[in-house]
Design brief:
Layout lengths: L7 E4 L12 E4 L2 H10 L9 E7 L8 H12 L9 E5 L8 H8 L9 E4 L3 H9 L19 E6 L6 E3 L7 E3 H6 L1 H15 L11 E2 L2 E2 L14 H12 L4 H12 L3 H11 L4 H22 L20
Parallel strand pairs: 1-2, 3-4, 3-6, 4-5
Antiparallel strand pairs: 7-8, 9-10
């Protein structure tokens, strides 16, 4: 409710970003935020501004995380946008939905930039109006002549599906690169992990099964992975995956299979927490029933919200 075109937000989360809505937002540490609130000021040196000039449109199967990782992989190590403002401009912006723009924008923190902001258009206006905030819209565009401290030019149509490996989102590869050099890339990552972990080493090569990378778990979550469009794409993939029961198993695995593990972790952290105890007891009695209800023939797959209510000893 605070983000408006042409406004500024100072937040306490490192991923404080509302640039896609035309708001200059910066994430600061809690103590710094308190200090600024007490003195009613936020003083920083004039930052440099880097134009992120977008053209084209993403290929099918390329999501906002792919665009973000492609940018992070190019600019993080060389510090090109460090402590600068990334300004997303160019005709390619209009080819991205608001959900897509937000997905890219929230990951700009990983470039080490100070903040990011996007030009606004009719999609921004429609987005704000849809949320009952039509008065928050203002058209933001570069002037006829605009000077920047640097430019990153991106043809969105040429960005490929990406993956980031430990230990930073800048350790990026296209999926094609990874598949073509799977063993070498994973071994190199293991070697680098020794220096980072003080002699310990992660094991990634054992994830190679029949020449391919085995994925244990997929999560639609995180600072940029839980958008509605992300979930819609996952849903479409599940619907195209095969038989009805297999689709339901995929849904159960994605949304419910880790419930017991998560609750046990909470209980281990606070053994005397009565609420956590009640959750654990409920799952012990009803987890199998929950799974059976989801997998049964009369249950339906829907992108809407369906509430399944289970009571101890019954349905």
């Amino acid at each position: 409710m605070l983000a408006e075109c042409g406004k500024m937000i100072l937040g306490s989360d490192s991923h404080t970003r509302y640039g896609a809505i035309g708001t200059m937002a910066m994430g600061e540490g809690g103590p710094e935020l308190v200090k600024q609130l007490l003195s009613r000021t936020y003083d920083i040196k004039m930052p440099g501004v880097i134009a992120i000039y977008l053209t084209g449109a993403p290929q099918p199967g390329v999501g906002p995380q792919d665009i973000a990782l492609a940018i992070i992989g190019e600019v993080f190590a060389n510090g090109y946008v460090k402590n600068k403002v990334m300004e997303f401009v160019g005709p390619g912006v209009s080819n991205l939905s608001m959900d897509y723009r937000i997905g890219v924008d929230v990951m700009t923190t990983e470039t080490a930039c100070l903040s990011s902001i996007w030009r606004t258009d009719d999609k921004t206006k429609e987005f704000l109006a849809m949320h009952g905030r039509a008065d928050a819209y203002k058209e933001l565009n570069p002037g006829a002549v605009a000077y920047y401290d640097g430019v990153v030019s991106i043809d969105l149509s040429k960005v490929r599906p990406m993956i980031a490996l430990p230990f930073h989102p800048s350790n990026t590869y296209t999926i094609e690169e990874l598949n073509a050099n799977l063993g070498d890339i994973l071994r190199d990552c293991e070697i680098k992990s020794e220096a980072i972990l003080g002699g310990s080493q992660i094991n990634l090569v054992n994830k190679i099964k029949d020449g391919k990378l085995m994925v244990d778990q997929g999560i639609i979550a995180g600072c940029a992975g839980g958008g509605y469009e992300n979930i819609c794409v996952w849903h479409d993939c599940v619907l195209a995956s095969g038989r009805e029961r297999e689709k339901k198993k995929a849904i159960f695995t994605t949304f419910f299979s880790y419930l017991s593990e998560d609750v046990l972790l909470l209980l281990e952290s606070e053994p005397e927490n009565e609420e956590y105890k009640s959750w654990a007891e409920w799952l012990e009695c009803n987890y199998k029933t929950l799974k059976r209800l989801i997998l049964q023939k009369k249950s339906t797959i829907s992108m809407g919200i369906k509430l399944l209510t289970c009571t101890k000893g019954g349905e």
